[in-house]
Amino acid sequence: MDEKNSLPEPSIFERMRNRLTPEGIPSDDRGRMRMVMDSLILHIHPAKVEVSSMKWTYTWGLGGLAALLMIILGLTGIVLLNNYTPAVPQAYLDILEINSNVWFGELIRNLHHWSANLLIVVSVLHLIRVFVTGAYRPPRELNWLIGVAMLLLVLGANFTGYLLPWDQLAYWAITVGTSILSYVPLIGQWLTRLVLGGPEVGANTLLNFYSMHISFIPLIIFGLMSYHFWRVRKDGGLTVPKSSKQTEDPKPERVTTIPHLVHREFIFALAWTAALLTFAMLVPAPLEGIANPAMSPNPAKAPWYFMGLQELLLHFHPLVGAIVIPSLVIIGIFTLPFFDLNPKSVGVYFRSRRGRSLTLLAVGIALIATPSWVLLDEYVLNWTLWLPTWNTLFSNGLIPLAVILLPLLLLDSWIQNSFKADTEERVLFIASFLFTAFIILTVIGIFFRGPGMSLYFPWNMPIVTH
Amino acid sequence: MKPKSYLIESLIGLGALLVVVSALGYYILNEPARILNAQRDVIAAQLDDAMTLYAENCSVCHGLNGEGIGATPPLDSAVLRTMPYDEIYKTISRGRYQTAMPAWAIEDGGPLSDYQINELVTLILYGDWTETGNRTINLGFAPLIPFTTEPDPVLLAEIANLPDGSTLQTAVQLFAAHCVACHGADGLGTAIAPALNDPAVRQKTAEDISRIITYGNTGTLMAGWNNVLATDEINALTSLIERWDEIPLGTIPAPNVPIPVTEESLALGGQLFAANCARCHGPEGQGTPRAPSLNVKSFLTQTSDQAIQQIITLGVPGTAMPSWGDRMSDAEIQAIVGFIRQWEPTAPEVAVLTRPGGGGPPWLRNDTTNVNPLPSTNRPVQPTEQITSLLDWRILILIGAVLSLAFALIAAGTFSLR
């Protein structure tokens, strides 16, 4: 009898394991390390990372948090899908059902809702972090473009998701939000009909938004996100933080990604999951009465992240407020890395000490200038009355635009003359100014606009009932 | 190189894990209770909507508190609460043949969506009818409550002198009991039903009129009355409609039905009175040189709620009393009427003096009289709390915080740039 044949047959489990790890699980650290290197984690991260780029106060973990939120949104979204019908009025009844008759239904909906809102905040903060540390400079321009595109898609995902509960809040926020589309020159009407699937927000809109929300937008975001991660590695990993005086370290200290980086990432994700979970348990996502096209709330407001835009619309001709200014801003954000080329200050917050001072200056000026301008335009300036014969596109659009651009140009030449600001400092100054102004407009739109979109103090807001 | 210690990170991770586990554990234990509460909230929200729907659509026939009026059945019955859900739903959405109940669903030509009908079924099954009645009052749908009235005895006696007078007398009494509800005093019509005391109606044949009374008028609120009225009664009503021009006006008067009030409507009425009426009628309704006293027995006992409502709505031509009908809703005017009416028990028999009497020389007076100051605030119709002074502490804090932050940033920036 052959001795080999007397060996017992390997069990099916052993065969499976042998197939998966042909050489067996190594016993030493180095061997295990190498094995895991082939696995998913090291497809994302390099084997070693610079210790300094792991500094919390440099990245604040914003990109990772955005990715975590995407995962939470994907998982909770899939669960919600099973309980939802994109039809009128079934959609609203399904939300009631999720809240009142599905185990963990409300928790999952709250998680989805709050994660989605947090994602917008985190994405914007991530963009600011990359901007103020100059991390978008060559060779990372392409990744900046992808990132900005993803931010727009995240806004789109949130906006399309906003309609799905089909309550009053959703219906009117989307009605207000999509009304901006009709101001697109030439194709506005056509575009509105395409997006809404009809003349107004209705059952077809719900279906359109639903399909966008669950298939098209997530698919593109998933593709871009994968590319974004890959691009980070391809472009040489994260930028390395430097203080403004420090020069390039010739021999940076490196540690292995596993466990040093992965360990921190998991703890970070766990802590945020715990925080989100607790928040979602305590604070329910808003839900108003069923959508009623015959009864518009006063004021009818867009989703909160578009309130800056809606505030602009109160001050400008729609073509300028809703199309020209936002397009210029988006083009500006996309092309930022092509203005701002100095590679020396990459990794330094605000470029330099001077840059930081200029940023403080810009934020301070914007804090005073923006509310003053809003009050002035609300109560004093009345271009259409002063220029009655002019086309409102000029009297209420281009002239006010010129009037606010002029002080901006003056500020720009002031910092050039008085502080000898160079190009990168000017870009920083103007971007900080505009960004602060936009935040203030958003805050005014959310908290200070009451019935009839008039200005009120938040603690004195009249409530209009029907 | 010394291996890095991850003690703090590990502790954070452990803490987070504990939070996740304990929070989820608590949530699971609490979930059945949460679901029950959520269902209660859904019902409460639906009832809230449904009460408004009821006030707007149903109170006309089913009454202020769902008590039913005339031939319209009550809804506040325990029996109805045992009725199958689908049966109630079907009745509301598709209507009931040969009754006044029309179809309310949009697909049957009605105004209500499935969801709204669903809410009304919830109201019938779980609702609180007293609260529903209050909602109806607060929304100003109370006057549509049908009523019956007593014919004027003197004029009724006169009718006997007309040819076939006894038939007309019967008809007038029937009309006052059954029809005045919708077709109004003297058959002049209301918001929900057309005038019958009308030459155009008199053009119709007796056959048409009696058919409509007998079988109802499909597509309107007109019920078929053959279950309630005998054939000769229907014939009497038909002849009344045909010969109404012979009946003197005032035979079937509007009743003196007090307008119902709630705490909210009284509060609203007081607010509106202070904002709009007090300027001329005085803050206590005691009157001013500009307008007469309202807070006086003679006015309040002799003027019905309907009359006060009409005065406010239409104004008094030739006096300073403007018409408020286009500035206020019915609910608001009724709230004011309710507010004025509550003075009646304490109203003085002689109106309070509003200016020195007689205009004679001051030395003629043997006392000193406090003259009521005439308030001259010019407030808007709907009083809203408005901050007129920027000295409110919250505004000062807001402006102070923004300005000091801004100047601190500017100072810090400029200082380090120098």
Q: How would you describe this structure to a colleague?
A:
The complex is a heterodimer of chains A (466) and B (418). Chain A has 466 residues and is mainly alpha-helical. Chain A folds into two domains: 50-297, Cytochrome Bc1 Complex, Chain C; 317-466, no CATH class. Chain A has 19 helices and two strands. Chain A has helices spanning 3-6, 12-20, 29-37, 41-44, 56-59, 62-81, 90-101, 105-132, 141-163, 168-179, 188-196, 203-234, 257-282, 307-315, 318-339, 353-379, 383-386, 392-419, 423-448, and strands spanning 48-50, 254-256. Chain A has a two-stranded antiparallel sheet. The mean pLDDT of chain A is 87. By secondary structure, chain B is mainly α. Chain B has three domains: 22-144, Cytochrome c-like domain (Cytochrome Bc1 Complex, Chain D, domain 2, Orthogonal Bundle), CATH 1.10.760; 153-246, Orthogonal Bundle (Cytochrome Bc1 Complex, Chain D, domain 2); 257-357 and 369-398, Cytochrome c-like domain (Cytochrome Bc1 Complex, Chain D, domain 2, Orthogonal Bundle). Helix content of chain B is 51%, strand content 0%. Chain B has helices spanning 7-62, 85-94, 114-126, 129-138, 153-159, 165-183, 199-202, 206-215, 231-242, 263-281, 297-302, 305-314, 330-341, 393-417. Chain B is flat and about 115 Å long. The chains are: A mainly alpha (466), B mainly alpha (418). At the A-B interface, helix 7, helix 13 and helix 16 of A face helix 1 and helix 14 of B.
